[in-house]
Structures are given as structure tokens and as C-alpha cells.
Design brief:
The protein has helices spanning about 10-25, 35-45, 50-65, 70-80, 85-95, 105-115, 430-440; strands at about 130-135, 140-150, 160-165, 170-175, 180-185, 190-195, 200-205, 210, 240-245, 250, 255-265, 275-280, 285-290, 300, 305-310, 315-320, 330-340, 360-365, 370-375, 385, 390-395, 405-410, 415-420, 425-430, 450, 455-460, 470-475, 480-485, 490-495, 500-505, 510-515, 525-534. It has about 525 residues and is an alpha+beta fold. Helix 2 (about 35-45) packs parallel to helix 4 and helix 5 packs antiparallel against helix 6 (about 105-115).
């Protein structure tokens, strides 16, 4: 700016005008405020764009170092990336600024414990981890971690270690029968992620978020009665919600993918009706949504194509959906079958629905003829047997290890394999023996064979040729491979901490495993293993 040579009012005015113009140029009128940057961070965080969220929160804090909510929320973003020093630093600042949530102190304690190494170390399996063994027939079996999709390291060292912001609490995996697509339910992300297993690439998303414009999806037939009504205090339109996708199942013809929601987002304590989405896999679009009971953790289709069974963790019931129509628009809610006694949702411990769940019904399979449905009872033990034709609960066969969780049939349908989570076992039973036992009121049945696999054995999967059984061992962060005919453990291989879901490809050459995480720690990972038998 040139110097003013005359001390006059005109010169003063000119200088003032020039200063004002300079200030206006340096600080535009529409410059972002700290609150606007913070809101931008929230938007990115809700879309799982973790690094962009961090950048926005950093901008807010730079503009206003005392913006408490920005310090609080950036802590959660750094938590996702497991940067504990930064989590603790920002949360301690947020605490001083009185900008934390009511239950915040336990998470701050856990972050400090992570920083100080007081908690069990997290496992992040190395790409290329491999195990091999000789089989009884002289052939060699090998399994190798060849790729991963994860949301905890945005700058991985290896190309096969792929950062994917949509991998948020991945729960379950499902292949299409032709092996062309893999569907992974990201529970806390309200999203089903679609991958191409051949190119190892994400190819699509299904977002479980419903607005007023989508209400036609929820239409019921005249005189069709929901299994559970909404209580007083529910939203005026409960069909405007985001759903937490948990497990999945394909229809008998492979045309539709059924995805139940653990709960609707507004149902904090999981005591209201949830829902199940029907997805046309040719277009990957949701074509209908049906109401369910509380916490429909599992869904399974009959081999005849007549029924889908929705298993309710939340109140000891199983709902049958009649799928004999030509299209999902014709499907109808069928009978609700109670296993034992239906839980009263008014008297349960509604703050911990993982325990306030009665028999905690979980995994299920139809017998090959479609006449019976077998359901695992994680609470109380045993396998419940339902007569599908008569649509009634026959009884429970016991003798299984504690907390039976996941059920799978052998390819020929003769053998039932089950995982017992707390006990850490995989066991085998003859399907006909289970049905016969409940028919003759036999209280208990010994397994044909069983094997200890490790603490918190969750999902199991059977190879398409029936030779191998795979088990996700949650607390020991590993995958165990067993010989199906003897349940002899063959090999084990590291997995990212807290593996929970898995599926084998139709050709038997890939195993996909999800690590969901526990108590907001670990997880956020989908691992791809290559299987080779030669």
C-alpha cells in the first residue's frame, strides 16, 4: 500500500477504504465458521468418510480451539483408525470443555487402556499368511490370506490390503450361487456392500435407509396381520428409518436376497417390530419390506421355495412367510410360532438385549425335504424342532455343548453341523436322528463327533464338496479348518481380531470372513482367503 503524503481527511478516508478492501479480500464474507466445519465433519463421519471427517474437525478446532463437540467427535474418528494417543488427547480436552456424552467415561478409560497397552493386543493378520497340511488321501490342502477390505488403515503398505470406508461393523457374508457376487452386511453402516470376488473389487452398495417416498415397499395385503404391533411412543411413521442389516439368506431359486434388520435405528432397546428386506439380485434393488418381530437375527429359506423363516432373537418366536406367490408382491406373513413361551417385552431387561432374550434363538436350517425347521437355542441350550407342515413347535432336543449358535447342513443334507459359542466346539449330528428324537420325546442326543475349536466359535461354513468345515473363532482371532468326516482340526490361520461371519465360494476356492469388532474395538475388516487342494 503506498504511503499517504498528506495528513488530510481525504487521505485518511482513502487509507481506511483501502484497508477495508484489503480485509474484505483476505477474509471473504462467506468464510466457513468453526460450527460449519464441525457440521461438515459430522456429515463425513456419518458417511464413514473418516479422513475427510478428521480434516473438517481439525478445521473447526483451528478456527475455535475451544469447540468441545469437535474435540469429542474427532476422537471417535481417530478411534476408527486406532490412533489412541490422539483419541485420548482430544477427549481429555472435550471433557474439560464439558462436551462429552453421558456414557463417555468408560470409552475414555478404554482408550487410555489401549494407549497404555493394558488390553489384549489386536490382531491384524498379514496379507500372505498361509497354512498347509497333508490330507489322509495324500493330497495337500492350503489356505492363504490374499486380500482384505478394511476401515482402519487408510494407507496400507500392500495393494491387496484395500481401505474401504463402507466396511463398518461387517456382520455376515453371502455368495450368489454362480459365484459372481458377494454380499456383506455392514451392520452399523446400515449398508449391504457388494463385491466381485473374481476381481476383488467393490461393485455396489445397498443402503438401508427409508424415506416417505419409499412407503410403497411396506404395503401389506388386506387382512395381513403383523406379528408385533408398535407401542405407544413409537414414531408416527415407523417405516421412515434406517435398518441395521445382520444376516442374509437366498431364496431357493437364488433370485432374491433376504436381509433382516437387527433393529430399526429409532428402536434403541430393540423392543419394537423390526423388518426384513427382499432384494432382487439381478438389479440389487430392494423390492419389498415386510415387518417382523423384535431382533430378527436370522432368516432361512426352505428348499421347496414355499417358506422363509424369520428367527427372532428378541422374544422366542419364529415367523413363517409364505413365498409361494409369483413375485415378492404376493408374499404374505404366515404363522408366528412360539418356542416355549413368548417373552413379554414389558418385563425384559431391555438395556442389554443380547442377554434379555429368553432362549436367544439364532441359527436355523430346514431339513432337505422342507418338513422341519431346526433352530439353535443359545439361551437354555438345545435344538428346537418345528413341524413346518403343521406349523407348530414340537420340542427341544438337548445334549449339545453350551450356547449352540450356528447351524449348517452337509451338501447331501444328512448331517447337521453346529457351533457352540461359549463352549468353543463344533459338533455333528444326523438330521434324521434329531427329528426322530423329538418325535419320541427323547430329551438328549449325543453328537456323532465333535471337536474343540476355540473360545467363542461363531459362524461355521461347509465346503461345497462336503470335505471341510470352517469355523470363525472370535476370541482367539483365528480361522480353524476341520475335516468334515471326523471333525479333526487340520490347520488354523490368523484372522483380524474378532472374526464372526464367513462363507465359502460355490467353487470352494475362496473363504470370505468378516471381523465385526467387539465393544467398539478391532473389527471393521473383511478377509479373503484362497483355498487350494492338490
Amino acid at each position: 500500500m503506498p504511503a499517504c503524503q498528506f495528513k488530510s481527511s481525504i487521505c485518511s478516508v482513502a487509507v481506511a477504504a483501502l484497508l477495508l478492501a484489503t480485509m474484505m479480500y483476505a477474509i471473504p464474507a462467506d468464510a466457513e465458521t468453526a460450527e460449519q466445519a464441525y457440521q461438515r465433519g459430522l456429515t463425513h463421519q456419518q458417511a464413514q468418510r473418516t479422513e475427510k471427517a478428521i480434516s473438517a474437525y481439525q478445521a473447526a478446532i483451528k478456527l475455535d480451539p475451544n469447540h468441545g463437540p469437535a474435540h469429542y467427535e474427532i476422537g471417535w474418528s481417530y478411534w476408527t483408525l486406532e490412533k489412541w494417543q490422539k483419541v485420548v488427547a482430544h477427549w481429555e480436552t472435550a471433557q474439560q470443555l464439558k462436551a462429552t456424552a453421558a456414557d463417555f467415561s468408560r470409552y475414555l478409560t478404554e482408550a487410555r487402556n489401549n494407549l497404555e497397552g493394558k488390553l489384549e493386543p489386536l490382531v491384524r493378520a498379514e496379507i500372505g499368511s498361509r497354512a498347509e497340511t497333508k490330507l489322509a488321501d495324500g493330497s495337500t490342502y492350503s489356505i492363504e490370506l490374499i486380500a482384505r477390505f478394511q476401515h482402519y488403515n487408510p494407507r496400507p503398505a500392500q495393494k491387496a490390503d484395500k481401505f474401504d470406508r463402507y466396511v463398518f461393523s461387517p456382520k455376515s457374508v453371502r455368495f450368489l450361487p454362480d459365484g459372481s457376487k458377494v454380499y456383506v452386511n455392514a451392520l452399523e453402516g446400515f449398508t449391504t456392500i457388494i463385491y466381485d470376488p473374481r476381481r476383488l473389487k467393490r461393485i455396489g452398495l445397498i443402503v438401508h435407509n427409508f424415506k416417505e417416498r419409499q412407503q410403497k415397499l411396506f404395503a401389506l395385503h388386506e387382512h395381513e396381520t403383523p406379528w408385533l404391533g408398535f407401542p405407544d411412543g413409537a414414531p408416527a411413521n415407523p417405516n421412515v428409518f434406517s435398518g441395521k442389516p445382520v444376516e442374509s439368506a437366498l431364496s431357493a431359486d437364488g433370485r432374491y436376497l433376504w436381509v433382516p434388520y437387527y433393529r430399526r435405528d429409532f428402536d434403541q432397546y430393540s423392543t419394537m417390530p423390526s423388518a426384513v428386506a427382499i432384494i432382487d439380485v439381478s438389479s440389487d434393488r430392494i423390492v419389498r419390506i415386510l415387518p417382523t418381530g423384535p431382533i430378527p437375527k436370522y432368516v432361512v429359506g426352505s428348499p421347496t421355495g414355499n417358506w422363509m423363516a424369520v428367527v427372532h432373537w428378541g422374544d422366542n418366536t419364529v415367523g413363517l412367510i409364505d413365498t409361494r406367490g409369483a413375485s415378492p408382491a404376493e408374499y404374505r406373513l404366515g404363522k408366528l410360532i412360539t418356542v416355549g413361551k413368548r417373552i413379554s417385552l414389558d418385563t425384559i431387561d431391555n438395556k442389554n438385549r443380547d442377554h434379555g432374550c429368553g432362549f436367544c434363538l439364532r441359527g436355523a436350517v430346514f431339513t432337505p425335504d422342507g418338513k422341519y425347521l431346526l433352530v439353535a437355542r443359545m439361551g437354555g441350550g438345545g435344538i428346537a424342532v418345528i413341524d413346518v407342515l403343521a406349523q407348530r413347535y414340537l420340542g427341544t432336543v438337548r445334549g449339545m455343548r453350551q450356547t449352540p449358535r450356528h447351524l449348517e447342513l452337509s451338501p447331501d443334507g444328512d448331517t447337521l453341523y453346529l457351533s457352540s459359542s461359549f463352549a468353543g466346539y463344533v459338533s455333528a449330528y444326523r438330521v434324521d436322528d434329531l427329528v426322530a428324537a423329538v418325535r419320541r420325546r427323547q430329551a438328549s442326543l449325543a453328537p456323532l463327533r465333535e471337536a474343540r475349536t476355540g473360545a467363542a466359535t461363531r459362524t461355521i461354513a461347509v465346503s461345497p464338496d462336503g470335505r471341510f468345515v470352517y469355523a470363525a473363532v472370535n476370541k482367539e482371532s483365528k480361522i480353524v479348518v476341520l475335516a468334515a468326516d471326523s471333525l479333526t482340526p487340520l490347520v488354523s490361520l490368523p484372522a483380524d481380531s474378532y472374526p464372526v461371519g464367513m462363507a465359502v465360494s460355490p467353487d470352494g476356492n475362496q473363504l470370505w470372513v468378516t471381523a465385526q469388532g467387539r465393544k467398539r474395538r478391532g473389527g471393521n475388516s473383511i478377509m479373503v482367503y484362497r483355498i487350494n487342494t492338490r
